[in-house]
Write a structure and sequence with these properties.
By secondary structure, the chain is of the alpha+beta class. The protein has 26 helices and 34 strands. Strands 10, 11, 12, 13, 14, 15 and 18 form a 7-stranded mixed sheet that branches. α3 packs across α4 and α21 runs antiparallel to α22. It is globular and about 105 Å long. The termini are far apart. The relative contact order is 0.11.
Length: 827
């Protein structure tokens, strides 16, 4: 029996126990129902949930519960992206072992998630730091290695001196470490990479297939991949006869090259200056460049710096000998690491040439006017026709692009090619708390992969956590020393661990078969559940995690491990939770604790507010008054249902008689509300407007009960039952309590979603706004539908309308069916 007062402290734990004991959210493959895989991005176990987590998981829970009620077999799992720097920093700063810190945090956050009433299948829980998981992360690395997609090379890499580890390009934001905001440096190290560039074209091309993704995310990925068509051109170093190749998208400017620039880190630089008078000065310049971030070196407003290194290159089309410089704005990782400089037609080159007194030669003139180098104040980068360009002089520059490319290919001096901004994924990390790279180094055999039967390569527990610049694993002799599996000689293990994004690039597959100890997943189970139907997470993962997951999926497809191309069919990127206009953070002192809100108001209130306050893709401004409002609304729903149950024995009419006007209005509103809430969840994810419709429905039901002393019991019962069902995905605990209070035995979350009757959506009457010369002067209710002629007759009989148009000529009558009528008069 329903109690008089809403007591969330009693209700919420009661139903959480019920759902868990009953195994409500455990699912299996197969059956007659269509499948639906709903997934929110799994969290890093930092210790406590924040409001961004609550928003993410509440959105996913509405979708999962709604789809279950719509008749789908819903997979809704949760796990932990559990490797990473914070755990290791806790070890360094507080003397807590990363494993102990992580598992304690997981226990606490799991408890918090259960207290929110999220409908997860906890039997499928995974943690990337568990050996049963990272065994398969290592196994996947070995498959990449066998396919030639994992390789080791010496490279200048992004180095964070605070975290003492390498960072991928994607983890450097504005020249700083994305985690600690320290200025990033460059270091020359042997590192492991994954060959993501082998899939660059497919990753870019297939973005158009992702019709369920936000356009902004696809644009961000396309820009990161950065495809450009151009020509590779071979120049010759005059002093050594060595070949240097440049990539350019502007072959039409080739005759305007007045100097060349090579990246300071390019291996050729050291070779060319060795033993010369410039050697020491060049090395000093190179060292200084290595301490600068790529952003600082290449920003449009950055000061251009360079120096001549004493050699020249020969232009292959005119034989001109031009000086070879090193400069801060050319990077080894982009293109070939060498660029041809055309100061007349590239602003960056123009600024550099003016600073160092290098020549400027015009080779493209505008359609009108005549450029001269001495009078130029900026580079001319627009369309025009070629001058000073040998046989191509007089050609429109667009036409010349093709003609010069044809000439270079014919003469064997260049070739058309496609270049990508995307670089191979650097995965080596000099940290302990990550999946060890399963590689052994043998003096006799070289690089040897760990045999699959010996996986996982376990993390040793006893290591020294000191920020020394090398992995803490290197301090464990037990870990480092091993035997070569090929020849049996003494060998050593790789001491770097993998980037944690490796772990999150396949976790969605492991949920399909989380306890398999023979293979990473059963192909039939993955074929049943995948791809993920609805993925939910922050837009900050648009490039890193989402691009890497798309890459992994394609490699796994080519290995025959999956049979689909894209891992996530639909993507929802939710906005941030703000307070006082800023993202919540401890440093700003504007953090709101989910635990405090749940303790004071209950999980249903927290969920309802966060879903009602803004559309999911928009940022949400926290409001204490909004939380109070959500709590008051749930109390109103409770009182409505309680009062309905109390009035059942002595009031109301049975459902056999004719419906009154009020009865019919409530019936129509019930079915309109079903349609509105259904469409808002299913088609638009407009949870805020869906909740608003439920609130309006509750208001109408209160009015119905107050005004109608003799209500139709069938109509009212249908309305109350519908209200509880519609509320269930948003506020699952109170809905469950009310549902059982209405006399039902099974769970509200096992019920079918209510269906609306299309005939009851048709209004018998509509309200028409009456305008006189475009200004609203009255509103009238008329039968629906109504013709223009019938409406005109009714309106001209209205006393108010007659008074407003008295003595004036009606020029025009405009009718917008079902909405407004505009009477245009003059005089």
């Amino acid at each position: 029996m329903l109690k008089e007062k809403y007591n969330f402290r009693e209700i919420e734990p009661k139903w959480q126990r019920y759902w868990e004991e009953k195994g409500m959210y455990r699912v299996k493959e197969g059956g007659d129902k269509p499948k639906f895989y709903c997934l929110e991005m799994f969290p890093y176990p930092s210790g406590k949930l924040h409001m961004g987590h609550v928003r993410n998981y509440s959105i996913g829970d509405v979708v999962a519960r709604f789809k279950t009620m719509r008749g789908y077999n819903v997979l809704h799992p949760m796990g932990w992206d559990a490797f990473g720097l914070p755990a290791e920093n806790a070890a360094i700063n507080h003397g807590v072992h990363p494993a102990d810190w992580t598992w304690q945090n997981i226990d606490n956050m799991r408890r918090q998630l259960k207290e929110l009433g999220i409908s997860y299948d906890w039997d499928r829980e995974i943690a990337t730091c568990h050996p049963g998981y990272y065994r398969w992360t290592q196994w996947l690395f070995l498959q990449f290695y066998k396919k030639g997609l994992a390789y080791r090379k010496k490279s200048f890499v992004n180095w964070c001196p605070h975290c003492n580890t390498v960072l991928a390009n994607e983890q450097v934001i504005g020249g700083r470490c994305e985690r600690c905001d320290t200025q990033v440096e460059k270091k020359d190290l042997e590192q492991w990479f994954l060959r993501i560039t082998a899939y660059a074209e497919e990753l870019l091309r297939d973005l158009e297939k992702l019709t369920g993704w936000p356009e902004k995310v696809k644009v961000m990925q396309a820009n990161w991949i950065g495809r450009s068509e151009g020509v590779e051109i071979d120049f010759t170093i005059a002093e050594t006869d060595e070949k240097v190749t440049v990539f350019t998208t502007r072959p039409d400017t080739l005759y305007g090259v007045t100097y060349m620039v090579i990246a300071p880190e390019h291996p050729l630089v050291e070779k060319l200056v060795k033993g010369t008078a410039l050697e020491a000065e060049v090395k000093q310049f190179v060292r200084r460049m290595q301490q600068m971030s790529e952003i600082d070196r290449t920003a449009a407003d950055a000061e251009k710096e360079g120096m001549f290194i004493g050699v020249h290159v020969i232009n292959p089309v005119n034989g001109r000998k031009v000086p070879l410089w090193i400069a801060n704005y050319v990077l080894l990782d982009y293109g070939t690491g060498v660029v041809m400089a055309v100061p007349a037609h590239d602003q960056r080159d123009f600024e550099f040439a003016r600073k160092y007194g290098l020549p400027v030669e015009v080779v493209i003139q505008p359609p009108e006017g005549n450029l001269t180098p001495d009078e130029m104040e900026a580079a001319y980068e627009e369309e025009g026709y070629l001058v000073n360009s040998g046989p191509f002089t007089g050609m429109p520059n667009r036409e010349a692009m093709q003609a010069i490319a044809d000439y270079l290919e014919k003469e064997g001096k260049g070739r058309r090619t496609v270049n990508y901004r995307l670089r191979d994924w650097l995965i080596s990390r000099q940290r302990y708390w990550g999946a060890p790279i399963p590689i052994i180094y043998c003096e006799h055999c070289g690089i040897v992969p760990v045999p699959e039967k010996d996986l996982p390569v376990m993390l040793p527990r006893e290591v020294e956590f000191k920020p020394t610049g090398q992995s803490p694993l290197a301090t464990s002799e037990e870990f480092v020393r091993c035997t070569c599996p090929s020849c049996g000689a003494p060998a050593r293990r790789e001491t770097d661990t993998m980037d944690t994004f490796i772990c999150s690039s396949w976790y969605f597959l492991r949920y399909c078969d989380p306890r398999n100890e023979v293979v990473p997943w059963d192909k039939e189970k993955v074929a049943y559940w995948m791809p993920v139907d609805q993925y939910i997470g922050g837009v900050e993962h648009a490039i890193l995690h989402l691009l890497y997951s798309r890459f992994f999926t394609r490699v796994l497809r080519d290995l025959g491990l999956v049979d689909f191309d894209e891992p996530f069919t639909n993507l929802l990127t939710q906005g941030m939770v703000l307070k006082d206009g800023a993202k919540m953070s401890k440093s700003k002192g504007n953090v709101v604790s989910p635990e405090d809100i749940v303790a004071r108001y209950g999980a249903d209130t927290a969920r309802l507010f966060i879903l009602f306050a803004a559309p999911p893709e928009k940022d949400l401004e926290w409001s204490d008054q909004g939380v109070e409002g959500a709590y008051r609304f749930l109390n109103r729903v409770w009182r409505l249902v309680y009062n309905y149950l109390q009035s059942l024995p002595e009031s109301g009419r049975d459902g056999n008689g004719e419906l009154s006007k009020a009865d019919l209005e409530i019936r129509r509103l019930t079915h309109r509300t079903i349609k509105k809430v259904t469409d808002d969840i299913e088609q638009r994810f407009n949870f805020n407007t869906a909740i608003s419709a439920i609130m309006e429905f509750v208001n109408a039901l209160y009015q119905y009960r107050e005004r109608e002393k003799s209500r139709n019991r069938v109509v009212e019962a249908e309305a109350i039952r519908t209200l509880v069902l519609l509320l269930a995905p948003f506020a699952p605990h109170i809905a469950e309590e009310l549902w059982h209070g209405l006399g039902n035995e099974s769970s509200v979350h096992e019920q079918s979603w209510p269906e609306y009757d299309p005939e009851l959506l048709v209004e018998e009457e509509v309200e028409i706004a009456v305008q006189i010369n475009g200004r609203v002067r009255d509103r009238v209710r008329v039968p629906a539908p109504i013709s223009e002629e019938e409406l005109r007759k009714i309106l001209f009989q209205q006393e108010k309308v007659q008074n407003l148009i008295a003595g004036k000529e009606v020029v025009k009558f405009i009718y917008v069916p079902g909405k407004l009528a505009n009477i245009v008069v003059k005089g």
